[in-house]
Fold this protein.
Amino acid sequence: MSTWNSGGGPPPIVPRPPSRGGPNVALIAGIAAAVLVIGGGVAYFVLSPSDPDEPAGQQTSESAQTSDAPTSEQSEDDNDRLMKVLPRGYPDGACKPVARLDGALATIACTVNKDPGGPMSATYSLLVDSAALKTAIDDLGTTSTVVDCPGRIQSPGPWRHNASLHEVSGTLMCGIQNDNPMLAWTNFDDQMFAVVQGRPAGPTLDNLYAWWSTHS
């Protein structure tokens, strides 16, 4: 028989020592709450646009519109560049931009040139490169009756400025197009392709060639 029951009283209560390895519930709860607050702040920072009054989608759209804006300005610059290299003899308002030739940055159509022997009509195009110049005059040859230029000058063939006879300046072509005398040339320096026309009653091909020789 156990000795603690010899007197008839209850056994003594021995207090349990506190646990040393158990989790601190209050501390964990505090950390979890702090993480939620910080995480919410990060999410708001990442997802919010830089300017709350201007949605991100609108910013992207406006950026795209800005990048497209120079297109019309570039076209105006190309027209101005072409206007500056047109042959002399055209009065104000005689030349205006028209639909661009394939491979051209700008195309300008002109009415009568007032200088002696000047064409009745003409188109001038600013082309993108030398390959486009060659394509343009080659294509013209397929839609025209090609003939020698006055003085038995090769057509199509190279032409040169008198001041630089050792350098080819472009290609010259003479012909008949829609029953009208026609003269065309390319200019490598100006990247220009020109087609000028006379009429059966004049100016004749001889007239056009004489005009071109002083205006090219």
